[in-house]
Design goal:
Helix content: 25-40%
Number of strands: 11
Radius of gyration: 22 Å
Strand content: 15-25%
Order of helices and strands: HHEEHHEEHEEEEHEEE
Number of helices: 6
Structural class: alpha+beta
CATH topology of the largest domain: Beta Polymerase, domain 2
Distance between the termini: 57 Å
CATH architecture of the largest domain: 2-Layer Sandwich
Number of domains: 2
Strand order of the largest sheet: 3-4-7-6-5
Length: 242
């Protein structure tokens, strides 16, 4: 009887309805197509509710070559006196891609090991992407590095976070010189300050531009745009299709 009750309880936990209730209980991160609050939503999707996804962390084994990369980085860090868990917050293996979430104070150490250790050999950084998650308290700004091992034909994503109140991340230019212009672009659009960058200046926007236009809290529109005499009004002045 007790065994049957345990089986019933386990089955109840696996019900799709229970999973749906847990998903709907997540906080709403934004509404509408763009999540803007300063102007009207003219996309026609103003009723969309986007829920906050839980932070992923993949347990072992990761599959593919991912375990070998994690083991290689762990051994390289331990040889230098740093535990893997002290440098890497969590590991996500999803959809055939591997991501290391690295503590920002350990970023350069991790990047150096990934480049220099023969078992890893991630010689090339393809670029740096910025992301802004206003709802991720204390971790609002993300810098994402895309690494490639030409020797071993492998790819790896390294992600580091910083709070809005302290938007500083160590520059990786000393390890991967190709990060130079990409870090400038990430600062230009998101406001992430890369400490140690040789020339952190704007690269896309004019030098006197105010703010960082790809942040989620940046005003959407409001700047008159003209095309050969035709004027495009700001979003709040356009016709609504709702």
């Amino acid at each position: 009887m007790a065994e049957r009750e345990r089986d019933d309880a386990r089955d109840a936990d696996n019900l799709p309805a229970r999973a749906g209730e847990e998903r709907l209980a997540r906080p709403v991160t934004r509404t509408g197509m763009f999540g803007t609050h300063t102007t009207g939503d003219t996309s026609g999707y103003d009723g969309v509710r986007v829920l906050r996804a839980p932070a992923l962390s993949t347990p072992r084994p990761y599959g593919s070559y991912f375990d070998e990369v994690a083991d290689g980085l762990g051994q390289a860090l331990e040889t230098a006196g740093t535990a893997f868990g002290d440098a890497v917050e969590r590991v996500v293996a999803d959809r055939g891609e591997l991501t290391f979430y690295v503590r920002r104070e350990r970023l350069l150490e991790v990047m150096s090991k990934l480049r220099d250790d023969p078992s890893l050999a991630f010689e090339l950084c393809m670029g740096v992407s910025g992301v802004h998650y206003p709802e991720d308290a204390g971790r609002e700004l993300h810098a994402v590095y895309h690494l490639v091992s030409i020797t071993r034909n492998r790819r790896l994503r390294v992600e580091v976070t910083a709070p809005d109140g302290d938007p500083h991340v160590p520059s990786a230019v000393s390890v991967y010189p190709t990060c130079d212009w990409h870090e400038r672009e990430t600062w230009d659009f998101f406001g992430l300050i890369f400490d140690g960058h040789p020339a952190l200046t704007r690269i896309e926007m004019p030098d006197d531009w105010k703010g960082h236009p790809q942040r989620k809290d940046y005003p959407l529109g409001g700047i008159p745009v003209e095309y050969r005499g035709a004027k495009v009004p700001p979003p709040e002045e356009r016709r609504s299709y709702a």
